[in-house]
Protein: histidine kinase
Organism: Nitrospirillum amazonense
Amino acid sequence: MKLRDLPLFVHVAGLLFISTLVTQALSIVLLFYSPPPVSELYAVPDIVASLRAPSTEAAKHRLKVSSNTAPPYEQSEDRRARVIGERIAWALSLPSYAIRVTLGWRPGPPWLSLSIAPKASEPPVSASSRSQRLVDVSDLVVAPFQISVRQPDGTWLTAEPSDDGFLIAWRQNIVKWLVASTVLVIGIGYFFARRLTAPLRSFAEAAERLGRDPRAATLAIEGSAEVGVAAQAFNDMKERLRLYVENRTQMIGAIAHDLYTPLQRLAFRLEAAPSDLRTKASADIAEMEAMLNATMAFVRDATGTERCRLELTSIVESVVDNMAETGANVEMEPSPSILIQADAVAVRNLVSNLVVNAVKYGVSATARVFTENSFAVVEVDDNGPGLPIEELARVFEPFYRVERSRSRETGGVGLGLSIVRSIALAHGGNVDLINLPGGGLRARATLPL
């Protein structure tokens, strides 16, 4: 079994597993191979200078000095903090309990900080003992820290490293790794997603082709197991629809064809009927024959499959010229050359029906051709009274006529617009009627480019 034939569940589970594996692998690489963040070092003499002259020395030594009514954190015991506090107290000629040193300070909740400082109740350490103890420590303080000095008025002067912003060097490296890993995982996910959704796109394209032509090619059965089952079901449905449409269309054509024989016999027998009766019956027979001819034309146009590359504008111009030669008031606006893939006879019938309807019911016709999005558009305007809103959709129904007399002198049999819509839908387009603001009706047919 090929990988693509596995169930869709396996594909999705594999995508999640591989994405998680890649993410964890990149995190391990970041953890073990990225350099640790480099701590900033501050000299104790620089801190002392900044506490003595905050306005001039603090910025020079990258320190921030502020005055507070109380130190930020509670003090706690730590030998290094005690030694640093004693050295600063000695340099400032202050008792050690007036100095509070907090190492490992970070902005945030108190439980995330390590606060270390000498107790205020401890007695001062002698100078000789202080000097003996200071030789055991470095003259440097590692950031972050807070060093506070109590002032005579009871406030605290606090020195701490200045804020260099959120994205300091080591954080920038982490962000770069995260961005790189995210791009890599997105690329892998996109590749898998394309593979998973490709059969769905094929389904959509096959459904669109089926809407245009029931004889369209079958859908290739490939993809996951579930997609293969769905593709087979789709192909079976398409075949059943094709047979259903063809059988119904052939049945209608056969019925229309077989009705010609009894009509001809009826016309022959009417020869012996009285003159007035023969005249009326002959008119009815002629109308029935016209309906049968229209039905047969409808069947032929609905089943036409001879698709080829056509120049649509030339077809419209030919229909307009032929109508103008008969004395009809019809013209065509200048239009660009547009190529489509369609059945030539069917498209010509579509255009002819639109132009004939415009001349018959609207006195004159003006045609134009242009493109809109991915469709070729044929518009035919007339100068007639238009149609009521409720009739704009119903006129496309077979044998429906706005003129109720059913007289062939005032209209056809009601299949012209049905044929137009059938042809447009068979090619993947559509047709609509629009009442123009200044009067008249616009027939608008669309065909895919």
